[in-house]
Amino acid sequence: MSKTVNISSPSQFSDVLKASKLVVADFAPLFEQLSQTLSRPNLVTFVKVNTDQQKDVAQAYRVTSLPTFIIFRNGKVADRVQGADPLKLQSIVKKLSQEVESIGNGGGGEASGSGSNGGSWRGAELPRGYTDITSEIELQRCELLNVDPDAGSVRVLFDTAKPSALSGAKSASKDWVESDTDEQLLLFVPFQSMLKLHTLQITSIPPKEDDDDDEDVPMRPRTIKLFTNKPHNLGFDEAEDLSATQEIQLSEKDWSAEGTANIPLRFVKFQNITSLVLFVVDGDGDGEKTRLDRLRLIGESGEKREMGKLEKIGDEPGE
Known about the structure:
- Helix content is 16%, strand content 29%.
- Helix 2 links the parallel strand 2 and strand 3.
- It starts with a strand and ends in a 15-residue tail after the last strand.
- By secondary structure, the protein is α+β, with helices and mostly antiparallel strands.
- The protein folds into two domains: 5-104, Glutaredoxin (3-Layer(aba) Sandwich), CATH 3.40.30; 131-304, Jelly Rolls, CATH 2.60.120.470.
- Strands 6, 7, 9, 10, 11, 12, 13 and 15 form an eight-stranded antiparallel β-sheet that branches. Strands 1-3-2-4-5 form a five-stranded mixed β-sheet, sandwiched between helices.
- It is globular, with a radius of gyration of 20 Å.
- It comes from Staphylotrichum longicolle.
- Belongs to the thioredoxin family.
- Residues 122-317 form the PITH domain.
- InterPro entries: Galactose-bd-like_sf, PITH_dom, PITH_dom_sf, Thioredoxin-like_sf, Thioredoxin_domain.
């Protein structure tokens, strides 16, 4: 028998958020199997929210399309899956199972970054008032140019797991990306909805020279150019010549002890964007390669768009 709680009022939903440490909210008729497997009284609670009957709750948590799944930790939004995304749902299930196991053993689950309350790993805390919107990326259309084929694919950049370089785990394949013929990388990231991007969190954990048998030890990025609302990836020459929406210069002091740079963006320039191009211009050192382990997007998600379609919104500075 399902242990799912059917929400009948905003006050009931508020009470559940207060009573249960972890809440998985389903705003569509799915997730029954997870509910039966993982529900635990006052620890993990699955709830159903009928968006037609509970419009106030749906509006409060910006549920604009179905299906939408939201995970709350200690009453605050920790993660969400919006739209039919089996890969993301699979990742959430795996992460949730780990959470339940940790809670059942008396732990509180691994914190994201330094005390942040997100469910997935994150190298830095969330800015107040904003959420991790990395799940809004249209992963199948992402493109990474000049990537070393012996390293990981573009998908590892958005993996919700802690980087193996920090966890000490040995994986069958590399869970990071490196540039190939030189230090430059070009990453095209389309979104499932209009986003307001507030912060970029980049994790780069190159090995120490004495820990790597390869003489060409990769570097962390130093100069990064960001372009918004491009319908496809740029070429390297084009990216060199175009005026960026924002250009970023990173130095050693910008990286945390665990290798994450928390980069605030010029928020007014990153409103209503449908795609992001990240151009790593050069690395911080004398090597020939740069390395990226994880990338997180922090901000607000907006109106859902039709999958596969990108529209340029307005004109960018300098174009």
